Recover the amino acids of this structure.
């Protein structure tokens, strides 16, 4: 989980229910800095990343979610949902920034830094 | 002698009596003890109510402390008298009937109340919760009258209630809000197995179901209505949707309460003389509902109350076991870890076993065991100790006995240490001695030879690594690992062929069923096997299998082609490449209306609208639908286009109606899913203007009939087609083409184009299959049956509201806020 310590600098916004995101799937939340992708694994864990693959900017929210990774729809890069980094041979080649996300009573609270 | 201190315990349940037992054990003479219980009976083991309901135990079997215990320990029990108030100034508690008892120390062990959903009809007779013996007696009475029972809540308690009622002869149905049973404890693989196991025991499951109202007749429950208007008839309805700490007394007395009564590490509330334990207490923000942490709390409190001020409760890790006879389920810890997490999965299809252990940085972080939970305690201990298990990682999943038996041995030595009569291949019952014996006696050097002679690893294949190790051990350097057909993906050792055969022969109808039967090594597959299995299931069980959109590549999930900038392209179908002024006008209007930046003519004789925003897709489709156009499936591993020339309609060389045949083929075959894309073309004469000889299936019309060609490609590889057969009539051309495509649908590996399939199985085998008229007919019939479920426009379905969540953002609340 992206269990970050709540800091006053983070503005938390309720963007929907955990169950609004399909298992092994993702949803998008548009923001002025670009889309944010919220993923839900088969085990029900949720993660948030900026919706841009570090490879060529592909929308990760459109990929196939498997285990705790997503495969980018454009060129098949496999991204770890917890870190936003590539896995295996793709590790160390950039990362999709992690967005703070907390679950409170089944609601998805997305944190925007500096709000 | 100093007068004894007065200890009053509110709650005659598991926590209340346990803490008294613990105190008596430490210092039997310290307190004069009074216990209040709301239930009019002695202390019993509440967690054993499930076996009582199931008729596997009687109430007397689950009594923990009988009346003699209270008498012998000089405990005053007020059973059936609920406490009505606590006066902290005079330090007295008041109970029903005006009874007032003073205390020096007070323990709140009032437990919890079952949550009752505020549904219409919740007050009808026959609507019960599952908390105490009265509830069980009501359920037993209902079961004696027979009929159906509905249980709301697919957690531990709900499932045990449903099982108990089914055991007593009722038709029991569990209604669960989530899509996995016991979703807080199980992953989806174990949840699936549990659903199956319960069905075998007469408990049906309805998942993702929202209860709307309880229906009644003459003041008695008669059914449950779900939000999708389904009605489940029942004569008893059990609500098992959770518990709420019972804090009313504490709150009324002004003691600090959050979700439960707030306590410190000595179980003390904010009143120094009042303590709380069990389900009514909240420690470090957690209110527990399982028995193990309650025992820990009681131990700490008993120590604190008998002079050991140093004792402290530090919170508990939780593990869960389901008490349903013959269904062994264990769960502990977390399965969704962060970086450095790793899954070890073991499945034994024959025994119905699924085990998953999650490691985090070399330590056990969680475990789910289904079918064989004997090692649950061991994993839980390793987890609680935070033990480094990297040294035993190889054997960890096989459990404690094997791991400790082989400790210190490397994997090869472990195989060497196996005795000759130890079984290697469970499917065919082959022991180590038989294998090594055959290798030496017959001079075997390859895995296939061993399989041929001994059958070891010839069935499910999961013992292949072990057999290979035996070959290596016996032959030394003489053994070379053979390279056979590659496994489907890293989740399995099976090839596509084996998997496809198992789906049909084993009547496997869902992905979790395949994972279990073929012993997948991951909990839910990967990005490479999931789309493949989804296709194999659709192909094997048309109309039966529900497509899993989360296992579809994005293009097939949203029915458009993703482009490099994340926009999509939209290609409407133009049957046989024919269009009309009205269709063209509609396309032009759509392009204007949605400011679509590029319009291009494709190689498949259609028009491509490029740069459509995802959110606009349903609206674009609505307009195209209105003009009579449907999806061109330009994104699909399925039938794409049927390219034609103008044929005998217009062309002076045309020999047959190639346009007409092309349209007929496309209208019959559109929407079909195939292992990889399928492109067709029909040329009206051998000049071949439709370029049919580089298509997956091509038709060249000649004066005397139709030449059917297969296996062309003009992409990454360039290949001319091979001629499959020649037929005399258009009718026969249809049959033959559908039959060959169906053969490919049934035999092809996912992502394998027709030409590659043809190279693999050989043109002759395809020819033979089509040449036999009965077989051709059967293939055609299977294709045609499958098409009944496929010729549905996916665009129109989505315009009508299917999967709207796919096209709409989750939330727009951040869209315009400053970053």
């Amino acid at each position: 989980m992206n269990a970050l310590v709540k800091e006053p600098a983070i503005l938390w916004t309720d963007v929907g229910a955990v169950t609004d995101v399909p298992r092994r799937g993702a949803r998008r939340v548009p923001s002025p800095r670009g889309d944010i992708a919220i993923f839900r694994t088969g085990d029900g864990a949720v993660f948030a990343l900026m919706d841009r693959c570090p490879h060529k900017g592909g929308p990760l929210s459109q990929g196939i979610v498997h285990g705790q990774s997503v495969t980018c729809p454009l060129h098949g890069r496999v991204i770890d949902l917890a870190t936003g980094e590539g896995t295996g041979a793709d590790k160390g080649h950039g990362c999709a920034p992690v967005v703070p996300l907390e679950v409170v009573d089944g609601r998805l609270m997305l944190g925007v830094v500096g709000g | 002698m100093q007068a004894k201190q007065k200890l009053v315990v509110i709650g005659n349940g598991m926590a209340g009596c346990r803490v008294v037992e613990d105190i008596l054990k430490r210092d039997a003479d310290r307190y004069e003890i009074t216990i209040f219980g709301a239930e009019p009976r002695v202390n019993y083991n509440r967690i054993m109510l499930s076996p009582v309901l199931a008729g596997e135990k009687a109430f007397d079997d689950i009594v923990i402390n009988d009346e003699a215990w209270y008498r012998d320990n000089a405990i005053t029990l007020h059973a059936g008298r609920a406490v009505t108030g606590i006066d902290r100034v005079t330090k007295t508690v008041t109970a029903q009937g005006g009874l007032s008892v003073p205390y020096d120390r007070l323990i709140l062990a009032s437990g919890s109340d079952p949550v009752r959903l505020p549904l219409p009809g919740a007050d009808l007779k026959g609507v019960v919760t599952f908390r105490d013996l009265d509830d069980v007696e009501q359920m037993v009475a209902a079961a004696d009258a027979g009929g159906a029972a509905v249980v709301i809540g697919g957690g531990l308690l709900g499932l045990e209630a449903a099982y108990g009622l089914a055991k007593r002869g009722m038709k029991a149905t569990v209604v669960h809000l989530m899509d996995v049973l016991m979703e807080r404890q199980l992953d989806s693989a174990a949840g699936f197995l549990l659903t199956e196991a319960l069905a075998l025991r007469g408990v049906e499951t309805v998942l993702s179901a929202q209860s709307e109202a309880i229906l009644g007749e003459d003041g008695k429950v008669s059914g449950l209505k779900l939000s999708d208007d389904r009605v489940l008839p029942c004569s008893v309805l059990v609500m098992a949707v959770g518990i709420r700490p019972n804090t009313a007394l504490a709150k009324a007395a002004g003691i600090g309460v959050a979700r439960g009564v707030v306590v410190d590490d000595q179980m003390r509330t904010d009143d120094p003389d009042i303590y709380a334990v069990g389900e009514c207490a909240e420690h470090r923000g957690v209110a527990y509902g399982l028995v193990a942490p309650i025992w820990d709390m009681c131990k700490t409190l008993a120590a604190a109350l008998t002079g050991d001020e140093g004792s402290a409760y530090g919170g508990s890790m939780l593990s869960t076991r389901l008490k349903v006879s013959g269904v062994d389920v264990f769960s502990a810890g977390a399965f969704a870890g962060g970086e450095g997490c790793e899954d070890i999965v073991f499945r034994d299809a024959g025994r119905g076993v699924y085990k998953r252990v999650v490691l985090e940085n070399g330590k056990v972080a969680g475990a789910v065991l289904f079918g064989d939970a004997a090692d649950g305690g061991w994993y839980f201990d390793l987890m609680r100790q935070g033990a480094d298990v990297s040294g035993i990682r190889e054997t960890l999943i096989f459990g404690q006995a094997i791991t400790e038996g082989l400790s210190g041995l490397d994997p090869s030595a472990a195989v060497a240490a196996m005795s000759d009569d130890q079984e290697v291949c469970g499917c065919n019952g082959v022991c180590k001695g038989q294998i090594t014996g055959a290798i030496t006696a017959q001079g075997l050097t390859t895995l296939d030879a061993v399989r041929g002679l001994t059958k070891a690893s010839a069935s499910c294949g999961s013992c292949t690594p072990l057999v290979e190790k035996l070959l290596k051990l016996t032959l030394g350097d003489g053994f070379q690992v053979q390279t056979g057909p590659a496994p489907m993906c890293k989740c399995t050792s099976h090839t596509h062929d084996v998997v496809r055969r198992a789906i049909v022969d084993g009547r496997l109808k869902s992905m979790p069923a395949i994972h279990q039967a073929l012993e997948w090594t991951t909990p839910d597959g990967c990005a490479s096997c999931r789309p493949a299995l989804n296709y194999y299931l659709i192909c094997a069980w048309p109309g039966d299998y529900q497509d899993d959109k989360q296992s579809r590549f994005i293009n097939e999930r949203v029915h458009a082609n993703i482009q490099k900038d994340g926009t999509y392209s939209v290609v409407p179908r133009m049957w046989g490449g024919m269009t009309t002024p009205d269709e063209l006008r509609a396309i032009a209007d759509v392009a204007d209306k949605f400011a679509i930046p590029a319009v291009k003519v494709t190689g498949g004789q259609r028009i491509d609208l490029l740069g459509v925003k995802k959110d606009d897709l349903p609206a674009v489709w609505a307009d195209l639908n209105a003009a009579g156009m449907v999806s061109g499936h330009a994104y699909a591993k399925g039938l794409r286009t049927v390219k034609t020339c103008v044929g005998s309609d217009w062309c002076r060389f045309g020999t047959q109606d190639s346009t007409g045949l092309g349209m007929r083929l496309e209208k019959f075959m559109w929407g079909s899913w195939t292992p990889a894309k399928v492109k067709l073309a029909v040329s009206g004469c051998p000049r071949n203007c439709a370029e049919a000889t580089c298509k997956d299936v091509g038709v060249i019309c000649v004066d005397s009939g139709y030449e059917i060609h297969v296996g062309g490609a003009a992409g990454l590889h360039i290949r001319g087609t091979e001629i499959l057969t020649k037929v005399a009539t258009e009718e026969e051309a249809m049959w033959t083409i559908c039959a060959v495509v169906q053969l490919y649908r049934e035999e092809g590996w996912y992502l394998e184009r027709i030409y590659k399939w043809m190279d693999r199985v050989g043109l002759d085998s395809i020819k033979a299959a089509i040449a036999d008229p009965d077989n051709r007919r059967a293939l055609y019939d299977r294709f045609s049956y499958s098409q009944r479920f496929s010729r549905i426009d996916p665009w129109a379905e989505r315009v009508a509201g299917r999967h709207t969540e796919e096209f709409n953002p989750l939330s727009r609340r951040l869209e315009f806020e400053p970053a």
The first helix of chain B runs from residue 14 to 26. The longest strand of chain B covers residues 341-348.
